From TrEMBL:
Membrane spanning stretches: none
Family annotation (Gene3D superfamilies): q2cbj1_9rhob like domain
The name this protein goes by in its record: Phytanoyl-CoA dioxygenase
Lineage top rank: taxon: Eukaryota
One family name in Pfam for this protein: PhyH
Length: 340
């Protein structure tokens, strides 16, 4: 396993469009604004960066944001098809362009999507938007998008020792409705949900459309892979007396917040990180892809998109087919309540 640096990399990068990260209003799942002094910018790399630079950044930081990896028009075509697919649920503003994904207004909890609905107690039976979002995972246009060749090429650059990389069948199309309280992604790391194998998988988070800094994109806790390892080692210790099935579960009796670590990003960083770490934010654009380590701690902000756009993204996960991997994720589509 490649060692991850235990000292934070210098973060001198400032976003040329937005300036100081502290100017941004980033709210977490608890409804609190993250302390502006605790914010920094995630630094991108161009898609034509050298393999050495890409691997160095991943191994040092635990996350690498690649600009323009996928053609923008391909991503926007996927966004259009998705919103056309779910439009009959009434989620879109009447007369708006599906590519824009403008929310219709009203109670956002009536349009809870995968990854959010279970936290809110919303079921497929009572939410047509959720039902259509779930069934979309098995549609050919979604599967084809996940199998993008440029993403797989980048996986092989980050993991050159993987001679036969495997794309897990289970992905999660996450939609975050604007101004929806309590629906931002809570603080977590992916290994909590992938415990049936060692922490060797790789996640590709793909924004399906533009996601400006205050529109609910992923935020990453600086230099947090070592902290993620330490937290998971503690869970391993306290889970030792549980059955094999329970030890693997992200929702076992020793977990909180349905497998997550906290709703409050600011409080978590101050009380759990043990040293000053910033939450790194970004101005994501259609075509970007972010790759992160399974122990990299991350969350998302509340979607405060000024145009009322629904934040849409997908989580793709990869593993080395020649090594142990979590077969629960590899062999089935997302189903609400599947325990993952």
């Amino acid at each position: 396993m490649t060692a991850i640096a235990t000292r934070p990399a210098p973060m001198a990068y400032e976003n040329p469009k937005w300036g100081f990260a502290g100017n941004m209003n980033i709210e977490d799942n608890s409804g609190s604004r993250i302390d502006p002094e605790a914010l920094g910018w995630l630094e991108p790399l161009p898609s034509d960066a050298s393999e050495e630079d890409i691997r160095t950044k991943y191994e040092r930081d635990g996350v690498v944001w690649v600009k323009g990896l996928i053609p923008r028009e391909k991503v926007l075509a996927m966004r259009t098809k998705y919103f056309e697919y779910v439009a009959s649920s009434g989620v879109l503003k009447e007369g708006s362009n599906p590519t824009d994904g403008i929310f219709c207004g009203g109670d956002p909890h009536k349009f809870a999507g995968p990854g959010v609905a279970s936290h809110l107690g919303v079921t497929v039976a009572e939410c047509d938007f959720l039902a259509k979002s779930v069934s979309a995972h098995q549609e050919d246009f979604v599967k084809a998008f996940a199998q993008d060749g440029d993403i797989m090429k980048m996986v092989t650059k980050i993991k050159p020792d993987w001679k036969d990389p495997l794309l897990f069948k289970r992905q999660l199309l996450r939609s975050n409705i604007p101004n929806s309280e309590g629906t931002a992604t809570k603080v977590h790391f992916d290994q909590i949900f992938l415990r049936a194998a060692p922490p060797t998988s790789l996640t590709a988070w793909v924004p399906i459309g533009d996601i400006p800094p205050e529109s609910g994109g992923l935020i990453y806790l600086e230099n947090s892979v070592p902290l993620g390892y330490a937290i998971e080692e503690e869970f391993t210790r306290i889970n030792a007396t549980l059955s094999d099935e329970q030890r693997m579960s992200a929702f076992n009796v020793n977990m909180v917040e349905r497998g997550t670590l906290s709703r409050d990003c600011g409080k978590f960083a101050k009380e759990q990180a043990g040293e000053k770490r910033r939450w790194l934010i970004a101005d994501y654009e259609a075509g970007d892809v972010v790759f992160h380590h399974p122990c990299m701690i991350h969350a998302s902000g509340v979607n405060r998109d000024p145009l009322g756009r629904i934040r849409l993204a997908t989580d793709l996960r990869f593993a080395n087919r020649a090594a142990p991997y979590d077969h629960r994720w590899a062999n089935q589509y997302f189903i609400p309540g599947d325990g993952l």
